[in-house]
Design a protein that fits this description.
The protein is built from 9 helices and 20 strands. By secondary structure, the protein is an alpha+beta fold. The strands form 6 sheets. Strands 2, 5, 7, 8, 9, 11, 13 and 14 form an 8-stranded antiparallel sheet that branches. A hairpin with a 4-residue loop joins β15 and β16.
């Protein structure tokens, strides 16, 4: 190796050695504690991060304890905030049933704290949101076999009268996970799902959050406001609940006396309109003949096509 090549090799080796401390410093910088980096975040960005964290898991701030026995909270109203925003994204409908059989609110001289949804024994019931199972119990004179889930968005949901529970207390669940099977246990006059939505132990009208007819939530977020809640709840029942005046005209079988159903949401109710509940195997032609009208008239009245697939329990209007 001549002198020129030797000098070149020496210079390259020297440069490589000189870069080692810098590379080492870069490695240490990448391993620096997160809190040191956070000092460089401006206050606006930091507040946004904190707000996002609260939205993702507000339950941590709303509840002080975890109790697998307490179904109803003491002094729940006092712990309920004046306003609270609930994230409804990432939801799953507890059941594909669109039939509401009883509304939230006053019923038979006392408060009915949830919605009753028509399901059959053995139908799969699913978690509405991701969260953690707080209660799995049996109450003979009330909920029957029921499950309570506390969700990360701050809500707790109750699922009652099931024939079987498929989860255990303290189990983490994701939205859509099976948690039980439909049934008729406890204080129940027919197979159905009693579904409650509670915030800090206070029952809120599920119709404010869930639209069972449309199989959807009412929006990405629901903001509870103590002053506006009563009027908003009443409106939600009119829009997404079952009206007693409508239910009284349903044509049901004798065995279905304890069951009530709802018609299509766009239906207009007049004194000359009646309702037919579809039985298994019935066709539009058979229903039209039974009700003394044409198939065309039946389809027009219900805004449906002649090739629609009828489902047992579906409600159709007829004159």
């Amino acid at each position: 190796m001549n002198l020129k090549n030797l000098n070149k090799a020496f210079i390259i080796a020297l440069m490589s050695f000189a870069t080692l401390p810098m590379n080492g410093q870069d490695l240490l910088a990448r391993q620096a504690p997160v809190d040191k980096k956070m000092k460089k975040v401006d206050s606006v960005a930091l507040h946004q991060l904190i707000y996002q964290e609260m939205l993702e898991n507000p339950a941590a701030d709303l509840y002080d304890e975890w109790d697998t026995e307490m179904t109803h909270y003491h002094n729940a109203e006092s712990t309920l905030p004046e306003t609270a925003t609930i994230d409804l994204r990432g939801f799953c409908m507890p059941t594909p049933s669109r039939v509401i059989t009883s509304n939230f609110g006053a019923r038979w001289g006392r408060q009915h704290k949830g919605l009753d949804i028509k399901v059959y024994v053995g139908d799969t019931i699913r978690a509405a949101f991701s969260g953690k199972v707080r209660i799995v119990k049996y109450e003979a004179k009330g909920y029957g076999k029921y499950v309570v889930i506390r969700h990360y968005n701050g809500l707790e949901t109750y699922y009652a009268h099931m024939s079987k529970q498929l989860v255990r207390e303290d189990q983490e669940v994701k939205a859509g996970d099976p948690i039980g099977l439909g049934g008729n246990t406890g204080r129940s006059t027919g197979s159905h799902l009693h579904f409650e939505t509670r915030l800090c132990g206070v029952a809120l009208n599920p119709a404010l959050l869930f639209d069972f007819r449309a199989q959807d939530v009412t929006g990405d977020f629901y903001t509870y406001n103590r002053k506006k809640y009563a009027s908003e709840s009443a409106l939600a029942t009119r829009l997404r609940g079952a009206s007693g005046s409508e239910l009284s005209r349903f044509d049901t079988d004798p065995d279905d006396d304890e069951e009530m159903a709802i018609a299509a949401p766009e239906a207009s109710f007049t004194s000359d309109v009646h309702f037919h509940k579809v039985k298994k195997g019935e066709t539009l032609q058979a229903i039209a003949r039974k009700r003394g009208m044409t198939v065309d008239a039946l389809c027009k009245l219900n805004h449906i096509g002649k090739n629609i697939r009828l489902m047992p329990g579906q409600i159709l209007k007829y004159n």
